[in-house]
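Incident log, support desk, overnight shift.

02:14 A customer reports that sequence design results differ from what the structure should imply. Their input is reproduced verbatim below. On-call engineer (initials T.W.) acknowledged and began investigating.
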């Protein structure tokens, strides 16, 4: 059974930082690309970032490039998203994803 469990969300002021984690189980984590996606209030699901199986290749949507960093620890089956210089428009539920499978998500709210 595939399980993805996100954590690390919360309320942060504009300009602040958060680090999201995603614990994966039920598949060979180190063999697959992984993704972060997000859903803002009242909007659809948007891709945020991707990372290759070994972590060598990362890609980002333009709005988060140079502010967010995706990483992974294949020894711990864990995916990360370091989010810096957060903006109100980053407010969303953040999900890690493996193919069409997502976790339950973690809420990130950026507000003063």
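02:41 Re-run completed on a clean worker. Output:
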């Amino acid at each position: 059974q595939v399980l993805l469990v996100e954590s690390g969300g919360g309320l942060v002021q504009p300009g602040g930082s958060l680090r999201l984690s995603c614990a994966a189980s039920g598949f060979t984590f180190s063999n697959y690309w992984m993704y972060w996606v997000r859903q803002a209030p009242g909007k659809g699901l948007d891709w945020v970032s991707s990372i290759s199986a070994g972590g060598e290749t990362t890609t980002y949507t333009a709005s988060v490039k140079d502010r967010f960093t995706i990483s992974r620890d294949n020894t711990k089956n864990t995916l990360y998203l370091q989010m810096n210089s957060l903006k109100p428009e980053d407010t969303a539920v953040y999900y890690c994803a493996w193919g069409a499978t997502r976790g339950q998500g973690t809420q990130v709210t950026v507000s003063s």
